[in-house]
Design a protein that fits this description.
- The complex is a heterodimer of chains A (113) and B (110).
- Chain A is mainly β.
- Helices cover 0% and strands 53% of the residues of chain A.
- Chain A is globular, with a radius of gyration of 13 Å.
- By secondary structure, chain B is an all-beta fold.
- In chain B, the strands form 2 sheets. In chain B, strands 2, 4, 5, 9, 10 and 11 form a 6-stranded mixed β-sheet that branches.
- Chain B starts with a strand and ends with a strand.
- The chains are: A mainly beta (113), B mainly beta (110).
């Protein structure tokens, strides 16, 4: 059974650019959550999607957005990149909202220069 | 003050020791409690999931929840070098977001 797949694994972008990250959940999982992980702040919740609708949102600026497709795959977009956006972006999937536990992908390491 | 507090360590113990990892929280509405393990360059992996006060055991791992004290623990018995990782506590209310602790970096020395 394939796990959660995140692409790309590594990304280097310049300040002011935008970036799109992709997440393919475990087959059958309909809920996808996104987290940002940094050494200083730890894991911080970005948003959660279920059945193509955003169900929960964290305290991030509007430059961070996401969407979910009918096949449950999800993308997140960050516009006008800042140096502070450098982080590991993790996607997690679960059968439904509020399921027992989440399965995380290995993340996308974004570096903004 | 953060909703979930976890000592970031680092914590270094000899192989075979009993390890105790702890988190405190301030939100009494948290109902579900989890422990994740994260190896370097990997995503977090779910270790334990509990939703009531008391103990839950799985092999060498025991999760303990004390809702009256707003305190959760993870014990690792007979620790192995392969247990070296960052351990994250996480909790949530109902179907809301997971709130994570800062993570404790653990090293088991052979």
């Amino acid at each position: 059974k394939a796990g959660v797949t995140q692409t790309p694994r590594y990304l280097i972008k310049t300040r002011g650019q935008q970036v799109t990250l992709s997440c393919s959940p475990i087959s059958g999982h309909r809920s996808v959550s996104w987290y940002q992980q940094t050494p200083g702040q730890g894991l911080q919740f970005l948003f959660e999607y279920f059945s193509e609708t955003q169900r929960n949102k964290g305290n991030f600026p509007g430059r961070f957005s996401g969407r979910q497709f009918s096949n449950s795959r999800s993308e997140m977009n960050v516009s006008t990149l800042e140096l502070g956006d450098s982080a590991l972006y993790l996607c997690a999937s679960s059968l439904r909202q509020g399921s027992e536990g989440y399965t995380f992908g290995s993340g996308t390491r974004l570096t903004v220069v | 003050q953060k909703e979930v507090e976890q000592d970031p360590g680092p914590l270094s113990v000899p192989e075979g020791a009993i390890v105790s990892l702890n988190c405190t929280y301030s939100n009494s509405a948290f109902q579900y409690f989890m422990w994740y393990r994260q190896y370097s360059r990997k995503g977090p992996e779910l270790l334990m999931y509990t939703y009531s006060s008391g103990n839950k055991e799985d092999g060498r791992f025991t999760a303990q929840v004390d809702k009256s004290s707003k305190y959760i623990s993870l014990f690792i018995r007979d620790s192995q070098p392969s247990d070296s990782a960052t351990y994250l506590c996480a909790m949530r209310t109902g179907a809301q977001k997971l709130v994570f602790g800062q993570g404790t970096r653990l090293t088991i020395n052979p």
